[in-house]
């Protein structure tokens, strides 16, 4: 006999500001038999090229997620009622050795998904998408369509000779054959690049682009249409760098760029992924030291909530 999923703490009997924070006040993994979706933190930021601090992202997002409620009217779904969602705690990663950290993240992600659970990972800097994509492609049995929300391409080659950084995960992933190069795309791209060649390399690595300006010029419905057409029915991995939002919506991040999406636009695009086949997702680059009034962490926690809602079984 299957048991009902264990949901979040009841805010009407235990005020939502009580207790040690788990994501959305959900049970911990060790408090339930098994999970359908595990929210896991990766407090790692040794791959950053500018402001550090995303290692404190997971705890900050959990704190800001206390106000999330169990019914999501925008998707007409109760995301914690028909699937077991848990907080799996943090993956510990070596801050002094990127290669070792990446191996540890990959190993932990493999273990957490061994019984079919899917991950919603809270970063951490964008480096962590590489080991997460390795495991996602393994679970999908082949390359996955990546929807990558970001101000940045993150398909650069190296920084100071380092091949694995937060600016390079999608180039490495493409080289490793993890990415479905007919179905992947970036959304929200903007800002200065190193040269025009960056865009040519990016296209060759398998990405289409919906820029931040496209969203402004063509509107959300057209952007959603383009995204869904590109994805087709491929298995999808969603990677959300919170700096895709305008710094007005998400100041707490390491490499901010002016002219970004609103949180309403981002939530709308994530909701539109509901009918797609999710392999996993991440929300990265929340750096609390540059945040104000939990603005960035509230945005990140709501984006994670929409992801979990989009992953919930329908009908
Ligand atoms: N925020 C992420 N993931 N990448 C930004 C890298 C930009 C740069 O240093 O050129
Ligand atoms: Zn970025
Ligand atoms: Zn990024």
From TrEMBL:
UniProt remark on cofactor binding: Binds 2 manganese ions per subunit.
GO BP, sorted A to Z: putrescine biosynthetic process from arginine, via agmatine
Cofactor dependence: Mn(2+)
Enzyme Commission (EC) number: 3.5.3.11
Statement: the UniProt record of this protein carries the keyword Transcription: no
Pfam families: Arginase
Keywords on record: Hydrolase, Manganese, Metal-binding
GO molecular function, one term: agmatinase activity
Keyword Metal-binding: yes
Residues the record lists as binding Mn(2+) 1: 150, 152, 154, 241, 243
Binding site for Mn(2+) 2: 126
Family designation: Belongs to the arginase family. Agmatinase subfamily.
Protein's recorded name: Agmatinase
Organism: Microcella daejeonensis
Taxonomic lineage of the native organism: Bacteria, Bacillati, Actinomycetota, Actinomycetes, Micrococcales
């Amino acid at each position: 006999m299957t048991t009902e999923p264990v949901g979040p703490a009841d805010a009407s009997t235990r005020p939502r500001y009580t207790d040690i924070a788990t994501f959305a006040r959900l049970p911990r993994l060790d408090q339930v038999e098994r999970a359908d979706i595990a929210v896991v933190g990766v407090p790692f930021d040794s791959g950053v090229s500018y402001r550090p601090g995303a290692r404190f992202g997971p705890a900050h997002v959990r704190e800001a997620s206390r106000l999330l409620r169990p019914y999501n009217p925008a998707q007409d779904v109760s995301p914690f009622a028909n699937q077991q969602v848990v907080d799996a705690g943090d993956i510990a990663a070596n801050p002094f050795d990127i290669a070792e950290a990446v191996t540890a993240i990959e190993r932990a992600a493999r273990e957490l998904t061994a019984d079919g659970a899917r991950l919603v990972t809270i970063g951490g800097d964008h480096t962590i998408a590489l080991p997460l994509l390795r495991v996602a492609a393994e679970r999908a049995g082949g390359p996955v369509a990546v929807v990558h929300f970001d101000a940045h391409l993150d398909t650069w080659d190296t920084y100071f000779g380092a091949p694995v950084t937060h600016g390079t995960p999608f180039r490495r992933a493409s080289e490793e054959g993890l990415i479905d190069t007919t179905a992947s795309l970036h959304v929200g791209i903007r800002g200065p690049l190193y040269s025009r060649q960056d865009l040519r390399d990016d296209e060759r690595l398998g990405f289409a682009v919906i820029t931040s300006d496209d969203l402004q010029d063509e509107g959300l419905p057209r952007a959603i249409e383009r995204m869904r057409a590109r994805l087709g029915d491929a298995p999808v991995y969603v990677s959300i760098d919170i700096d895709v939002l305008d710094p007005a919506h998400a100041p707490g991040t390491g490499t901010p760029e002016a002219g970004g999406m609103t949180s309403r636009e981002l939530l709308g695009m994530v909701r539109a992924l509901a009918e797609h086949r999710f392999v996993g997702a991440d929300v990265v680059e929340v750096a609390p030291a540059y945040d104000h009034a939990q603005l960035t962490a509230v945005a990140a926690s709501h984006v994670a909530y929409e992801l979990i809602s989009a992953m919930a079984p329908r009908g």
